[in-house]
Batch of 4 targets.
Target 1
Amino acid sequence: MKTDSQLQRDVLDELAFEPMVEHGQIGVMAKDGVVTLTGHVPNYAQKMAAERAAARVNGVKAIAEEIKVRFPSDPKTSDTEIAERILQLFRWDVTVPDERIQVRVENGWVTLSGDVEWNYQKKAAQTAAGRITGVKGVNNRVEIKGEPSPADVRERIMTAIKRQSALDANAISVSVAGHTVKLSGEVHGWNERRVAEQAAWSVPGVNRVEDEIAFA
């Protein structure tokens, strides 16, 4: 008598051997001779062909057929499809270092992990993942790599602020504690405040910005 793992392997091999079936998106589970088929195929004919292929394998006593027909025009909303589309989008997006970010999808919820050099890369990955149809939410656990000294972080932020023609660098104070940057001082409008925040976020190692800038 075949073991469950042997039966599972034989059914998978038979599906791969069947020319009418695109077996790459079909999963197989076996328990005491009962085989469960899951996944999705592009048409009903393949669904029936997969069931027939499994039924002709020696040792199969019953089939629980849970394959779904998903047409090419249908939204791609299975966890596998969502993950594949996110990875594909990462490869197209030049702001996302796709080789450094891992993607996990469970019931439509996406978890991103890995590390990047810049905060904008972390945010770009989350934004890209959130655009995919079927995504219910994104848990962004990507870390910003690097441990620059607080003095170095402050110097880089001040240099970035000084480059902005819309800002008076002398009116803004910057303090750094760990990965947190605190901005204070006075500006004349929301746009100046936003520019100062962007300057702070542009520096590697910054995970949080506390904006206490007031309006003059």
Target 2
Amino acid sequence: MAVVGAGYWGPNLIRNFRTSEEWDLVAVCDLDPDRARKVVGERSGVDVTDDLSAVLARHDVDAIAIATPARTHQAIACQALAAGKHVLVEKPLADSVAAGRTMVELARSNGLTLMTDHTFCYTPVVQKIAELVASGSLGDLLYVDSVRINLGLVQPDVDVFWDLAPHDLSILDYILPGGLRPKAWPLRVPIPSAPGSRASGT
């Protein structure tokens, strides 16, 4: 495994891949190698580089995880898929529907896995909700309300729908019987304005 990006979210991926018995983290790629080395640690055997092409040329790298700004996801993912690597991309998958479709089609045509890291779906709380829904304990679901209490890092290259809504939508897709099935696209979601909020309009 290799991780591309050691900035905001990359350190979490690096830590998890290093401590997992299921993965062997062999490389971290970042435009700032000094920052990446601090994340990896001085005594680590993980290679650190700023050369993505070199990482993708490695025969011991089967997959990469991308934790870079959304505007870079398509280019990095497509380069990795073209090199025969499976790809995990931090949300959002891409910064546009067209870019996302291009990535999906390339992965499909090459027989590779392209996955977005919908991290909340793997938490005990969401898995318990899914269990309660599936068992019928909550009865028929007629309405879902989602409130975001932490905006996290403000992303300069994507809006609130692309940045935060994927969490809520992925949770709904996971817990609802049959998954989330929108009846129209693009969705128009009313977002109330609030002091200090990034979201306004629809």
Target 3
Amino acid sequence: MTERHPSSDRARRAEPADGDRLPPARFAYDRHTWKEIAHLLANLPMSLLGFVYVVTMLFTGAGLTVTVVGFPLLAAGLMGARQLGKLERARARALLGVRVDEPSPIRLRGSRNGFFAQLWLMLKDPVGWRTVLYDFIRLPWGVLTFAITLASLFVLWPVLPFIARGLANADRAMVRGLLSPSDELERRIAELESDRGVVVDTAAADLRRIERDLHDGAQARLVNLAMGLGLAKEKLLEDPDFAASMIAEAHGEVKLALQELRDLARGIHPAVLTDRGLDAALSSVATRCTVPVKVTVDLDGRPAAAIEGIAYFTVSELLQNVSKHSGARTASVEVWRTDDRLLLQVWDDGHGGARLDGGTGMRGLADRLGAVDGLFVIDSPPGGPTTVTAELPWRDREPERG
């Protein structure tokens, strides 16, 4: 069972979707032909709707630009054009099998931008203007395709599947050319905006965990330590033996508090990772695993600190899963670099069955990797073994400033 995190497979999505692979046209009426005929007959009412809206919006908005309401009206018209484009993409998906991504929304960010800044963002929206162009040129095409298709239904019935395919292919080209996101950069912006939310949520969760650990752990011990030392101070002259026992107990509390602070610091960013890199840090993590772990790190340098930290915590959490859930007898960790990617693989001979939605934190790991344009793949058939492969972008480490 192999599971690939869907949001992080972006560099490998060049293949066309299954819906775009249509059987060749033939002298027969299959479901694809009937859908194309329905689309072509619907072109006339849809093109009339779009043309009337665009002409009304352009003439009204442009004519009123000499007043205070002209530009806001034009901006509102462009936002409405976006909705018409969304409707046309849905129609193309349903009837033509065209798989096009939805363009990224306009990010107005509420009160962070003033009214005029938001207005300017809407007025220069390329998606809205391309939809306006699409609706403007569609009227003659809608009339033509409607007339040809309707006439062919009664006159050219045997060859209508070929006619419908040719006209529908022109529609597919228009949709892809004018209604799809303008380029890969726009799609990446939308993905990165989504990933930014994941990063913010992850950071907030980490801060809450640190706060909880400090409050329930080291802070509580230090409060008890202060109270114990205060009591020992009061009893120092009256009952030296009791005071000595209180000091000894406080000494033990100090050791426990220091250990908890060390564990907490290791959970934030371990010193061994900063000082000695992934090889030493992962070897240290492996010693805490309940099964023997072989660690192999083949790197000719150190990646950027952020990438190094993500790689460390990914392996750390995967080895915790090996200890708690896998039932494995042995495990291994391999880390290497291929071109501009850092790859790591954690393997164990446990009972398998690991999944992204299995409740073992795999989804959180996958989201964290996806947020930095990484890749996360689980291969864990029932009965094992389990292999988890993670891939991160390699960024060179900046030299330290003295």
Target 4
Amino acid sequence: MTIDFTDPEVIRDPYPALARLRERAAVSWHEPTGTWLAASHAAADAVLRDRRLGRFWVDREPAAVWEPFNLLHRNQMMENEPPAHTRLRALVAKAFARGHVERLRPAVDAEAARLVRAAGDEFDLLTAVAEPLAVTVIAELLGVPAPDRHRLRPWSAAIVRMYEVSRTPEAEAAALAACREFAGYLRDLAARRAADPRDDLISHLVAVRDGSDRLTADELVASAILLLNAGHEASVNALGGGVVALLRHPAQLDRLADDRSLVPTAAEEMIRYDPPLHMFVRTAAAPVTIAGVPIGAGERIAALLGAANRDPAVFAEPDVFDAARDPNPHLGFGAGLHFCLGAPLARIELRAGLSALLDHAPGMTLAAEPVNRPTFVLRACREVRLSRRA
């Protein structure tokens, strides 16, 4: 018996199936995808940290068809290992380090509060708060002008559907179109910022240097799109899933409402309890042993983050949402070389959204049963309808 990533019941609630998988073996073979699955916290952590396991981008074929998608991925840090990864991450981190996270904190708090106040007595958390907040944050970070911001969410949503275990030809065509359009837009924006720099990340990515080294035009575009896709999708889905988890644990919601100092730990628990990314695949560059299982060179192994984050060997009462859980060594932001560069920004956004709901939608309840997207890798709701009425 093996896990079926397309089973509607697994997609609705993957945790019972992930627990059974983890209980049978820390690492097991998944014949349908030809991939080893690391389900325990220790095994998933080892997959993320072992330098013999990496991300080695191979262009999709036919190249003429897939070039818009291939171009973005071969030039981004997440699909590369050292020395290419080291160089790209250092340049992007150098631009990121110019105070962008702290610069955005007041604006994120204010925008989250404004969005929650403007929502009706009954509203969809995703469309009314999480999505516009995420778009605003990423747009402000990159320096995307306000009239163009409505284009970011559709582009991101189309591109990330390519990462699912199964996808349709229509989804592939939409992803390719989004890659072309988004890359073209960012090339134009980068050219404008080169001529007229602003205090935004695109301007700093254009200007950043490490000695004589700098990002190429393709690397700049790929880095910006990675930040949007990773930051936007994770933030929206973490807030949506996290609020649902809180509402299913009303005692924890009351605890949080009474003690706002718990907002940071509650935000971390949202990422642990129902992580927005459930699978991160790596390839063995050389033979390696994970949890006693030999992985041959060229074989793939996936860290199952949702399974790792519910491992009872690491987390007491792992299936219970604990707003004060500390320590909380979850793997929701990854680990090792590919730890999420945007984690500080994601934390600010998640805390701001949660605080705004506590302040301006007290007594919120689920107005309807949340509707899940039919995806496993990116765990998300299509709709989370909330009512302000106590």
